[in-house]
Design a protein that fits this description.
This is DNA-binding response regulator. This protein is of the alpha/beta class. The chain is built from 8 helices and 13 strands. Helix content is about 40%, strand content about 25%. Helix 6 packs across helix 8 and helix 7 packs across helix 8.
Length: about 220
């Protein structure tokens, strides 16, 4: 799934530039223009990381960070025109995970975000998903039915793993595009093609296998 960011920034032009670049880089972005809206965004839930400007029109970004750190370890990257050592030290000591001084390149911002997200994630725990005779090893990125390995392309495997994580749940084409391809602008025909190929590989096995069911008007689900 695409990481969900909260961008708390009072400069509309700068915020639009950041948001556009970050979304193209594979993130979803919620923009808040001041401390009040930023606080609501941070505590809304579903946010993976906050990009926080310090100079907000209705309060200090540092105070917002201090309040957040009293209850949460949500990753925060401070972005600010205040590049002095005292400012950087204050932000990091209060609890920022990184501090980026304006102006900076959007590529650097993306790299810093990805680095902080990697550090904040717990170590991967290998998970084996079982749906009927299907066994999906998420650590090895391999799938088998009744011990018979499936030869899958990367997106076919990603599709099968996603469906196997929630058997019986219906996923729309738009949800599958967003979560697997990271881009809802792709054509739904992309999903149809991959479902068709994956169905062929499951049905071509010499043993009964789970099936991908089309729920007309809604999407697809995996049935044991």
């Amino acid at each position: 799934m695409r990481p969900h960011l909260a961008l708390i920034e009072d400069d509309p032009d700068f915020a639009l530039m950041c948001r556009t670049y970050l979304e193209r880089a594979g993130f979803t972005v919620m923009w808040a223009i001041d401390a009040r809206a930023g606080k609501a965004a941070m505590y809304e839930g579903g946010i993976d990381l906050v990009v926080l400007d310090l100079g907000l029109p209705d309060g200090s970004g540092l105070e917002l960070l201090r309040a957040l750190r009293s209850t949460s370890r949500l990753p925060v990257i401070v972005v600010s025109g205040r590049g002095g050592e005292a400012d950087r030290v204050a932000g990091l000591e209060i609890g920022a995970d990184d501090y980026l001084v304006k102006p900076f390149s959007q590529r650097e911002l993306v790299a810093r975000i990805r680095a902080v997200l990697r550090r904040s994630q717990p170590p991967d725990v290998p998970v084996v998903l079982e749906v009927g005779a299907l066994r999906v090893d998420t650590a090895a990125h391999q799938a088998a039915v009744a011990g018979i390995p499936l030869t899958l392309r990367p997106k076919e495997y990603a599709l099968l793993e996603l469906l196997a994580r929630s058997p019986g749940r219906v996923f729309s084409a738009e949800q599958l595009l967003e979560q697997i391809w990271g881009a809802s602008w792709q054509q739904p025909a992309t999903v149809v093609e991959h479902v068709y190929r994956l169905r062929g590989k499951l049905s071509g096995l010499p043993t009964p296998a789970p099936r991908i069911t089309t729920v007309r008007g809604f999407g697809y689900r995996l049935d044991p």
